[in-house]
Amino acid sequence: MKAQELQGETEQKEFSELLEKINANSKDGLREFYEKYGKLIACTAAIFFKNQFLVDEIVNEVLIKIWKKSKYDCKIDNPKGWIYVITANCAKSLLRKRRFLSLKESMVDSKDGIQEFIDRDSFYFMLKDLSEIEK
Question: Which pTM does this prediction carry?
Fold first, then answer.
């Protein structure tokens, strides 16, 4: 039990130092932060989105939030949990935005939706130049 507490305190201290490093030199600090926690952020985002572009968008959004939070002196008891919550909140926010702003991926799928409409329209376009006998 004592070893686990010591490990938690060490992780908290390293995380605080990393936030200070981000505040002092954001480029190097964020790079180091990404190297250490990037996989956690990406895996958490992948729970919400299967699209790699959207996962990358969430990772970028989380890094921006971390950069903004680094300016404040705050003690984080559970760094990985804190990162997980930030990532989940960013993903949920993007889900809400996408619900109102974009097409569902199933509509673009070749089985139905827009692709079906395009195929049907293309078919009728090809038929229009044919004579009645050829049709």
Answer: 0.65
- Each residue's pLDDT tens digit, 4-19: 565 667 778 888 888 8
Closest C-alpha among 74, 8, 69 to residue 33: 69
Q: Is the Cβ–Cβ distance between 12 and 79 less than 8 Å?
A: yes
Distance of CA 112 to the CA centre of its chain: 27
Which residues have C-beta within 8 Å of that of residue 105, sequence separation ≥ 6?
A: 51
Q: Terminal CA-to-CA distance of the chain, rounded, Å?
A: 81
Q: Which two tokens stand for residue 47?
A: 């729970």
pLDDT digits (tens, 9 = 90+) for 75-91: 778 888 889 999 999 99
